[in-house]
Every structure is written in C-alpha cells, then in structure tokens.
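Hi there, hope your week has been kind to you so far. No rush at all, and the record is pasted right below.
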Amino acid sequence: MGIRSLTRGEAERRAALVAVERYDVDIDFTALPEGPEVRCVSTVTFTCREPGAETFVDCAAEVVSATLNGTALRPAADGRIPLPDLAAHNVLRVESVQADTSAGEGVHKAVDPADGEVYVWTSFEPDEARFVWACFDQPDLKAPHAFTVTAPPTWIVTSNSGDARVEELDKARRWVFPDTPPLAVYNTVVNAGPFHELRREIDGHDLGLYARRSLADVLDRDADEIFTLTWQGLAFYAEAFAMPFPQRKYDQVFMPEFGGAMENYGCVTWSDGFLQRADPTPAERELLAVVLLHEMAHMWFGNIVTMRWWDDLWLNEAFAEFACHWAAEGATRYTDAWAGHLVSDKLKAYLADQGPVSHPIHQPIHDVAQAASIFDNITYPKGASVLQQLMTYVGEEHFRAGMAAYFARHAWHNTTLQDLIDALSEASGRDLDAWRTAWLATAGTDRFVLERDGEQVTLVAADTARPQVLAVGAYRRDGQALERTALARVEVTGARTAVTGLPADADLLLINDDDLTFATARPDDATRDVLLSTAAQLPTPISRGVAAATVWDMLTTGEATAVEAGRCLTGILAVESSDAVIEPLLTLAADIAELWAPPAERPALTAELAAVCRRLAADPGRRQVALRGLARTATAGDDLAWLREQAGDDVDLHWRALVREAELGGDVTSETDRLLARDPDPDAWIRALTVRAARPDAAAKAEVWQRVVVDRAVPVHAVGQVMAAFWRPDQDALLAPYAQRYLEVLPRLDQGGMIPAMVFAGRLFAPFSVDDAYIETARRAAEEVAPVVRKTLLERSDAVRRMLRSRTAATA
C-alpha cells in the first residue's frame, strides 16, 4: 500500500486525542553540496487526553529510528508511525532521512546552472512536511516550532522566526532559531543556500530579501519596489485588521525551481521566476505586487488564524486573493488592480464555474488528496470576487469592523466558516445565512439580462439569483465616445428586480458596471451588436473590462464567434489607457486568434492584432508591451524584420522574435546560439529550448518532450512557457503523437507534489491535434489518477472542447 492521505475523520479523532506543546526540529543540510540527503531529528512534545490510547504520527521520509517516551517504535507503514499506549505527557523523537530531493515532495535541492551553487527550499502545503520530518500534519494541531539547522559554512539559512543564533562548527555552521508562535505545520519553512541578501528597516520591521547570487543584479534592480510594497502592505493590513504584524522580521526568499509563492509565516518563499530578467512590464510589476500582498494577507488569514480543516481552504486562499487587490488599490500605485483581476483570473473563474469542475466554494473535503485538487479558479478568483461582493453587500466599514473582531477573537487558533460569518453578521447587523448558502454552498454563476418596457427597466436572472448588490450603468453616445449618465445600484433579492433612476434614452445599459459582483450578463437582441461595436468607446478601464468579460463569456458559450470577440477586444486594445488591463487583454486577444478562431479566419485575425501592436509601439509607454505582442502575432516577414530593428539591445524581445520565426519555419539555429552566448540570464537555456519547442520539426519536438516531461529538467515555473511554444497551430501531424503520450504519463503526473501536478496536467494537455473523441478518452483515463491531476485535466479539457466548437463555428 502506498502513502496514505489523511482523512477528515482521522484528523478529527487525532485532534480530539492529542494537543501538541511544541516541535523541536534539527535539520542537517551538510550533505547537500555533494549528495541528495537531508537528515532530520524531530522531537514532538504533546499531551494525550486519554492515557493508554493509540494514534499515529505522519512520516513519509525514511525512518532511521523512532522512540516514544524512550521506547522504540514499530517501523513506519503507509507514511505513518504507530504511537501505542500514549501517556498523559509524551515526547516523541524521530530521526529521518529524505534522499529524494530532486523530484520528491516537501524539500528540493536546486543547482544553479550559472555557477554550480546549491540551494534548498522546503514547502509543505497541504501536507508535505511529513516527507521531511515526523509531525502531526494537519492544520488544527498548531504549536511553536524551534528549528536548528546545520548547513555548509558559506550558506545563509532562513526560517519563520528570523534572528537565529549562528554557531561556528568545524566545517559547518549551526543556525538556532527562536520559537515561532503557534503555527500549523504547513506554515513553517527552512530555506538555505549562498544567498545574495538585502535588508531594510522600515517602521519598526526588519525586512529581508534573498536570491541566488547569479540573480543579484536583478534583485538589486527590484529591491526598492519590493521593499516599498512590503511596507505599504504591512501598514494597510495592520490598519484594516486592527492588528499589526506581530513579528519584527519579515523575509522574502526567491528560490530556483520553486513553483508560485508560499505564505510561510514571516518568511515567504517565491519562485525566482518572479524576478524578471528583462525590465519588467507594468503588468509584470503589478503581478509581483498582488502576489506579494496575497502572501502577506496570509500572515493573518492562514497563519495567525488557521482553518480547522481543508473544507475551509477558501478562507485562506479566497481571502488572500481578495485582500491583495483591496490592498493594491488602497495602499499602492496599482489603483486598477481590480480591473486587471477582471480581465485575467476572473475570466478563468467564469469559465471554470460553468464547466465540469464547478463546485461550491465551501464543500466537504474527505481527505488531503482531495484538498490538493481545490487550489483552483473557484477557490481563488471566484472566491475573491465573492468576498468583494460581500464587502459591497455589508459595506466596507462594517466589513473592516467584522474582520478586526474576527482576528482579535481567534488569533493563534483555528476557525471554521461560521466563525467568520458570525463576526461579519455582528458587525453589519445583517443576517448572512441566506447569503452564505447561496454564495458559498451553491455552485454556478448567475447570469443577468435587462428587459425594457418604455421607461421601466427590469433586471432578470436566468435562474434564481443569489442575494447581491450590483450596479447598472447608463451610457449615451458623445461623438466617438460613450459617456456614463447614470449609475443605479440594485440589491437583488429574487429573479426579477426593478431598476430605477436610469434614463430612457440611454444608448447602452451595462450590467455589473464597476464589477461589484460575480455574475455574467447578456445584452438583449437589440443591443448585442451595439455592445460588440462600441465596447472600446466606454470611458473607464473597469467599464471596458466588464464589456470584454461579457463578450468573452459569449465566446465560451458559443453565443459569439471568435472573429466577433477578437475584433471587439482588438478595438479595446487600440484605446486602452490602463497598464493593468492592456497586457491581459492583449494576451486574451492573441489567445482568441490562436486557439479559438477557425483556421481559415486565424491569419486575418492575427494580422489585425499585429497591426494594432505596431501602432501601439509608437507610444513610448506602450512600446515594450506592444512589441511583445507583435512577437507573438507577427505574420508577414516585414513584421519580424521591423521587430528586430525595434528590439535593439533588448535580449528578451530577440528571444520572443526567435520563437515566432522558429514556429513559422525559419532557420534560427545560428542566431539562437549567438543569443544564448550573450544572454546573462543563468536560465537562458530555457529560452533556447523554447525556441526549439516552436519548430515544426519532429526531432525538436522529441527533444523538448524528453527534457520537459521525461527528464523534468525544466523548472516548474517555466514549463508553461516552453509548452506554449510546443503546442502550435498548423502542426497537427507533428503533435498528434504527444497527445497520446500525455495519456501514457497521466498516472505519474502527481510526482513531486501539488504544484507540479497542476502544471504538468494542464500544460501538457494538447489544444491542437485532438478532437471530441480524444477529450472523452482523456476524461475516462482521468478517473484513475490523483484528484489534483483529474481536476486539472477536466478543467483544461472543457476549455479545449469549447475551443474546438468555436473553431468550427460559422463566422458572423
């Protein structure tokens, strides 16, 4: 039997039986420069409410020895060590070793290709600490952790509590960290390596940044921005939650071969892919800002107050995703963050919520393996949008008061959804039970239309509507622009709601103006073409974003063609003024041309977008973004020649142009070698592999599949970049074999933990060279794989099925 996943029932019984007093964890990294092994001694001090009872401790590493109160224990089985005959007070000591530090869970050794230096990181969500040391790996057994780390003498070690005492040994250093506050095991961390370190004192906080030495110049370039955002975020959340971050040290560590970012208390770990090697675009800077604020929000929502079990994962992730946009607009220069959210992640949530993976935001979770499958577009962007609606529904002042009460009442403990609802109900004076049931316990997306009868306007829900507050904007044409003449806020309590205060002569009525709720809309037959043709004339990024979201949703449901949707978005791009919106819209418009348009329509739609990019490049503020867009959409030979001329010394743009030229069949081998030789990025080899991936060449496709899928040589954060170049239109004969190979590797895609499983299951699914029959085969194959892989496959296959339908639709 393999390593078992902890069930909810098992966790409840164990939490009822034991209480953890503390963890003392000794970690030895000294073998890592030459070998793969991490050695640990975990000492767990805990009490038992029923002396004589039996339970188990989680340990999926190799157990060298294990004793309970001085008595040797039986060997581990299924990733668990039995703990018989518990005393009222117990001391468990487990020595373990983890040698799978290249592809295993929990701990990872990375070697920098630039200089051969070794770095190691740990990451434990949802239950991967057990792969490194023995622990009670469930969120409601919180306890202080004391880490002692022995590492090579040139290394720096970071952990949650900071301020380690460093002892010099013969050929190593020992880092002794003070106790953490009571934390869930998955919120702990140890990172180590010969880091480049920067520190800054701001408002009483000691802020630290770390990266591998080969990226020192990049970290130095971005440090002022990161320190400023960190200070702004800490100040915003301290005021919003009436609770300052309680620790002086707050570190952020950018690590190689890490996926995403992880909210470890006081020591956030990032993928160093967030340190852009070229000068970041505005959207890349904004992404770094919102991710930074997302992980910081977890200090309160997830670390200080922790969910009792994984069915309340949304309390962590949705809240952090909501809070990061709230804080970005309220405390930083990224004042269009909600508009950026609307035209990127929220569109993914609309699609997911209308497909086979839709689920209630709050749902029963049987075991941790299932929990790993709900780190998804329902939990994150839909959950964030629902919380934005909740703040609108109760009012921001009441929302802040409720959150302050919640943190004051539950700090350093565990909660359930009801605890949050109770705090917000008390603060707002509103009974939120109906709201909770409709929004959190019910899957699916509301859809609204408007009915007009003379001066009377009625908001009509396609199905029973959730209780919510939204706005309808009235717009009148003013030359070549639309001007908002009225905005009506509506509290929806049923399927039909009268809307008052709107002028009868409006040229366009926009449902969900200001994007206050999570709901889709449809224009009536009389205004459908008006919306498609005039969306670009709306006056604000958020109003244009709402129109774009409506058109996108119409495309995904077959109610608009790719040509209609693509031209509408291209029109918006030509006038868009917001940095937060233009890049995601450009990506969306290119996706429509490439993935959704019928093959006969693809060249013209792509050429129209390329022409817009060339025009936008004349604006210095849009130049970099526009040239990147052109690198993806260039069709004529003069496009690429002009792009190279404009790129000058911009290595990033030259790489992008090479990918496009390779896709179009150009001989780029020599130029790739020259660019690789002069690119200072230690990961430039990935760019060269991306160029090779795009080539319509059987040998190139085989090599890339081997490197990415079989060898897993590409860092997880770069897999999407490489595979986007691999799966190209008009290469079906070359790609068809790899669609079949995907089915063969499917059972093994959960190797390495949750993040790699999600990335590989989604990015390796072919958007071309497949048909509906293949999709059904893939879905059947997914019935036997890990839940996180199955969930990702179902979501991706639904999107591809919709693309296939759109590609065969008649052009309007």
